[in-house]
Amino acid sequence: MTALLWILRYEALMAVRRPVVWGAVLPLALLSLLLSATWPAVTGHGDPAARLGAAAVLVNTFCTLGVGLALTDRLRRASESRGMPELLATTPTGPLPRTAGSLAGPLLTALAPVAALLLLYAVVVSVVEGSAAPLGSALVSLVTAVLPAALLVTAFAGLLGVLLPVAAARAATVVVWLWACHFPPVFSPVPTATGTVLSPLAGYPLVAWAHAPEVWAARQGTGALRPAVGDATALLNVALILAMAVVCYALGHFAARVRRHAAA
């Protein structure tokens, strides 16, 4: 456990010292906060919990994307670095805890300002409305939607960062993210993941558990991948997002290992 905490602390400190982390995440987090406080699609809801659910949609649109863009080059840098991977391998812990620490440190660091701003907004709404429901909605959103989506976009961007030049990987991540989250079937001439249980927007748990407007689940689409909102479909949406994140992480680490051995 001590070695795991050391790796977690080391990775977090390295992320804090990288300007790209703050340059990519903070502006998008502030934009999400501004839109949450001024956009009628959010402020127009009479139910304060629904207002937080709609705000969480904005956070999961912009902020999680910013986290992925900030950490796109993490696997590539790890594969190109010399000395630190070997040093970490000598610590008295297995490969799984080492991998967990190296992933969780940067991710939690990048997500910290996002979570802080969303919770601050929730506290303000709760105080103004005299209800604790918005704070509960924010906490549920962070655990069931924002964190799984951040895991997936970070894993996907990291995989692309190993396979492509970093700038191209970031551009591709933006395109795929928008296609998967905000390219609804009613406007799409091609198949789209938007509104399905595969969408990383996590619309199903946001609607089922965080009181987001129902439109953010199926997005006016129909079919087997766009079932009715419920606890089971919300769990399925979260499980599929996490499964895709695991696959992308595994492929990314495999590609980084191949790249490291090829450069040796």
Core attributes:
single chain, 264 residues, mainly alpha, 77% helix, transmembrane, transmembrane helix
Description of the structure:
By secondary structure, the protein is mainly α. The chain has one domain. The protein has helices at residues 2-16, 19-38, 40-43, 48-70, 74-80, 84-89, 95-129, 133-163, 166-181, 203-210, 215-218, 231-263. The radius of gyration is 19 Å and the shape is globular. The protein starts with a helix and ends with a helix. The model has no long low-confidence stretch (mean pLDDT 87).
Please, what is the average pLDDT? Answer: 87
Shape: globular
The major pleated sheet works out as: none
How many angstroms separate the termini?
A: 31 Å
Count the helices. How many? 12
Q: What structural class should be given to the helix and strand makeup?
A: mainly alpha
Q: What's the number of structural domains? A: 1
Helix and strand succession? HHHHHHHHHHHH
Enumerate the spans where pLDDT stays under 50 for 5 or more consecutive residues. none
CA radius of gyration: 19 Å
What is the count of β-strands? 0
User: How helical, in percent, are the residues?
Assistant: over 70%
Strand proportion: under 5%
Secondary-structure map:
Blueprint: H1 2-16, H2 19-38, H3 40-43, H4 48-70, H5 74-80, H6 84-89, H7 95-129, H8 133-163, H9 166-181, H10 203-210, H11 215-218, H12 231-263
Helix pairs in contact: 1-7, 2-4, 2-7, 4-7, 4-8, 4-9, 4-10, 5-8, 5-12, 7-8, 8-9, 8-10, 8-12, 10-12
